[in-house]
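Q: Sequence in, structure out?
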Amino acid sequence: MEHDNDQVAIGSTIPYSLYLDCVHCGLCTSACPTYVETGNENDSPRGRIHLMRSVSDGRIELTGNVRRHLELCLDCRACETACPSGVQYGRLIEPFRTAMEESGGTNAKTSDWFHRWILFKILPNRRLMNVALKPARWSQKLGLARLASRLKLDRLLSPRLQQLVTMLPTLRRQPPRLPTVLPAEGRRRARVALFRGCVADVMFRDTHWATARVLQRNGCDVVIPESQTCCGALHLHSGDSHTAQHLSNQNIDAFPLDDFDAIVVNVAGCGSMLKEYAHHWNDDRQEERGKLADKVKDVCEFLDELGIERPRGSIPLRATYHDACHLTHAQKIRDAPRRLLSQIPDLELVELPESELCCGAAGTYNLTEPEMAMRLGTRKMNNILSTGAELIVTANAGCLLQISREVRRAERRMQVKHPIELLDQSYRSDGLSTTK
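A: Exactly. Output:
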């Protein structure tokens, strides 16, 4: 069928053949978190593809109801893993959401204070985020946060700010900033750059240090370019393509690719975004984006390919591993983290039921869609409890925050860790590491 793209504004930049890849077989539905929860065909991948194609064809209008079904999508990409036809769902939903945003009107996220100030301004900016968290740090330290929760004073906040407050982990004293260069231990095997990101560098700097130590232990010089910035995923997934493009250009300039064997990322969402830079913008820097993307490796992927020095420190715990959506579905990395964890002495790894079903984090989804995020978080926690695990392992900052909140809600004493933190713990407890 010939399609006249000139007649249609919404969705006109999407190659029409991507819609036609979907044969509407329905094998994706059982993998889709929102369909599993609602049972509504419009909240399934094939249903959303039908909606997007119908809007692009001009057969239906982009009404509030249609927008709602598309915005409820977590963009977890589980449908891509399930699809036998190779439908590239991410390359449909992301540009379509951008087109919805650019169509303007009162539904535009840039006209919403929470998106404009919290999600687009504060969260991606390390300096602003540190400033914004200072009151929370003092509140936790003085016990005011706990008191406010008991007195239900948090109900005075708007629902989205309430959600943001409940997501905050215990804000311990931050370790120092990583230096620009950390040398390899022993024989040098590779020279890598470490991607810091935004939220991860503020809330999970311990994980960055653990990542650097594990890389050093395995013979890698680690370089942390100072001028790198947010990957842009928070903006792109909310329809702000222009800012995401600007951030991608900053990252291209920050990483001199000839200097590194790989750009190592320990946050699945950031890694997925960086690897797909070349798909999002067709401009004069597209070739550079493609070259950067080719260098990007998730830390578990990189270490699994490199081959690690076997850790010797015992971690005698029963653990379960949750597959971060943008690691297992977007990057197709499922086995590497499990292989690394299996090498840690005495760590018992138990498979998690519905491990590949989203926990409800999905970037900032748990802030913008709290009701669905809560349902998925509860579902995930019930599956975790069924394993009898003492330790939950996952490789994405958003999942760490979401699952940690569910642990607190369930009033359980369970640890939630990144796989690299466990490797680091095992290396550091064996008495052989020289890295401080």
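The mean pLDDT is 89.
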